[in-house]
Amino acid sequence: TTKLPPQGLLEKLFPGRNVTLKIHKNFGHQLGASSSVMLALEGQWFAKYDWFIRVNPDVLILEDEWLIRTIHDRQVDGIFADCLRGLSDHNCSRHCTGALVNTDFFAVRPRSIGPDSFSKYRAVHNAEARATKAFNSII
Asked: What is the spatial distance between Cα 31 and Cα 14, in angstroms, rounded to a whole number?
């Protein structure tokens, strides 16, 4: 986040939990969508977790059965939304070499990507193109 939340909010939302809050600059729409991911991966914040999930605040998960079932599948290393899905005849669910990863939501196993997965593509300014390159090995 770019600023501290109101006093006591985190304690109220997450009682008895260990919550870490990181504050950094807002880099704007495209870089902002991936700068926090770069920071987290480089710092290996999620290395001890099974999954790293990124969700924009305006994304709603209305039916989670498929998502939960897929997260429990040990053969799955990533769950992605495709920006191109629904355009013309583009429809892909596995090994999507022609897909464009939507950065509004994704879930990935930290063990399946390296700490420099996003940062090595700093020259790619479009967030979705950067994410697609970063996750290419598991798409």
From this structure: 29
